[in-house]
Amino acid sequence: MRNVIIMGSGCAGNTAAIYASRANLKPLVVTGYEPGGQLSITSLVENFPGFPEGIDGPVLVEQMKKQAEHFGAEYVNGTVIEVDLSKRPFRVNIDGTWEETSTLIVATGASARWLGIESEQKLIGKGVSSCATCDGFFYRGKKIMVIGGGDSACEEANFLTRFSNVALVHRREEFRASKIMLDRVRANPKIEMLTNTVVDEVLDVSQGVVTGVKLRNLKTGAAETREVDGFFVAIGHIPNTKVFQGQLDLDPDGYIISHGGARTNVAGVFHAGDVQDRIYRQAITASGAGCMAAIECERFLEAEGH
Ligand code: NAP
Question: Which pTM value belongs to this model?
Fold first, then answer.
């Protein structure tokens, strides 16, 4: 039986693994289907403390993993397809193989929702981004487009006007965003709003970088091609909590509800990172949360006489 299984290998999971391994708990980290998490699909990270020149996202998570392995963490490439948290030891099914564990740290993250068109997927990290805070800086003075009609899209569009003018593209006339956020967008002279408009293609896959976007107006059918350098998709996130439904307390959108600190409603199960955080979603906050979860886990086991 394991002391602790950590689900997820983004900043939260890796940091939890560093702390848990240094506490001699020999954690098993299950990477999940997006090994490295959100950082593995970004390019330069300039806001993680300690790297004045910035650091490549995939390199940063790989370094974290190596650091955890150095202290004895074990990584398994796989996905948890089922859990049984009804009694301890907890049971975790990794691609068909059941493992038993005394405690569990859930760091499965929240995946950005994408439009799903092929050209968008091919240009992620090459001009296509799901994080204005992370990547906005690279588009100073360039042509920026934001997709979405919710609070995230409005917030990102407003934020991005620090760097340049922004076109906000939304598929309907009415916005899902709260009135205050929408009013801010409408009052911002640097934002152009394109409603009833969908994206047919992100250009240019053959050049391997975003150069423009093919748009279509749903009401008139009119198509147009625009030059774009930074294409920000802000159509929501999906917390990766499917396997916990009915076992952990989740809010209506599927995020884990915290029961104080890193605790969930099940004693011995802890949360870390974006799977519980719909507000900050930063590498550094996820790492901080991973640290909290590992410390709470260690104290929980210690109180049980481990
Ligand atoms: P959201 O409220 O679910 O809005 C998603 C938006 O993306 C909607 O406008 C939706 O269009 C659009 N969309 C979804 N799928 C699409 C697709 N395939 N193609 C084109 N458009 C698509 O998500 P969110 O904006 O991320 O907000 C999530 C939650 O966090 C909300 O409760 C929000 O209030 C909260 N939040 C709050 C703040 C804040 O207060 N500062 C900031 C960010 C988020 P339709 O409207 O047509 O469905």
Answer: 0.79
